[in-house]
């Protein structure tokens, strides 16, 4: 009895905008008409740890773009540099694959989604907040960690924006398992192309932004995790993955990075600690 295997995705490893980038094309898909999604790993976590997440995105015929998130370099403005790289890589991607481009669209009007984990999730929030909000179509931030520096969860002082109408929203009392807030859209001010009078126009659009939170990992403060971000930015949507640890989104526990940051919120994580 013969079995038919599903065609394997086409993986390319190229350098875009000076960054080593992994591009995964869905099987039998040769264009980008179904969209591009950045899959951003946690700090120092191999891209190969996110094969399952990648495959879920590929099932929707999106092209998946990933790069390694090195938090040791550059030394200054590390997270913002990675966020800027997302926008630069997308520009370079559109140029490199212009023959597979979106019909009737230019690079300035094209958009991309972001799925990020841990530090990669925070990088995704930075892209949507201050780097490239005009082209981000959605962000799924899996257990983001807002540290080094703190930019969304300062108890005192100002935070970077994730919504313009914060005063009109009330955070949920608590994000429980399988529950979420009603409003899943973040309103962001974007400057659109000049109109007939040649003046750029500021308009408000909505970016779907979902945040998850888990029972944590070593060194992750509840003051700066996904739930903390949601409470200060209540227009986001927040899901709690109960009994899950920080590395639950990885295929093999995050590899060596997971050994340095065990999932203290889970029995497996506690058992992994030296006794």
Sum up the structure in keywords.
9 strands, alpha/beta
Give an overview of the whole structure:
The chain has 275 residues and is an alpha/beta fold. Helices cover 21% and strands 22% of the residues. The chain has six helices and nine strands. The chain has helices at 51-58, 78-96, 119-131, 226-232, 255-260, 267-271, and strands at 10-16, 19-25, 36-40, 63-66, 112-117, 136-142, 185-192, 201-213, 237-240. Strands 1, 2, 3, 4, 5, 6, 7, 8 and 9 form a nine-stranded mixed beta sheet that branches. Helix 2 (78-96) packs across helix 3. Mean pLDDT is 81; it is low at 166-187 and 189-202.
What is the approximate shape? globular
Report the total helices.
6
Mean of the pLDDT scores? 81
Rg calc: 19 Å
Measured between the Cα atoms of the first and last residue, the distance is 51 Å
Helix content: 10-25%
User: What order do the SSEs take from the amino end to the carboxyl end, as H and E?
Assistant: EEEHEHEHEEEHEHH
Largest sheet: 9 strands, mixed
* Stretches with pLDDT under 50, minimum 5 residues: 166-187, 189-202
Structural class: alpha/beta
Give the strand tally: 9
Tell me the strand percentage band: 15-25%
SSE arrangement:
Layout: E1 10-16, E2 19-25, E3 36-40, H1 51-58, E4 63-66, H2 78-96, E5 112-117, H3 119-131, E6 136-142, E7 185-192, E8 201-213, H4 226-232, E9 237-240, H5 255-260, H6 267-271
Parallel strand pairs: 3-4, 3-5, 5-6, 6-8, 8-9
Antiparallel strand pairs: 1-2, 2-4, 7-8
Quick structural summary:
The protein is α/β, with parallel strands linked by helices. The chain has helices at residues 51-58, 78-96, 119-131, 226-232, 255-260, 267-271, and strands at 10-16, 19-25, 36-40, 63-66, 112-117, 136-142, 185-192, 201-213, 237-240. It contains 6 helices and 9 strands; from the N terminus they run E-E-E-H-E-H-E-H-E-E-E-H-E-H-H.
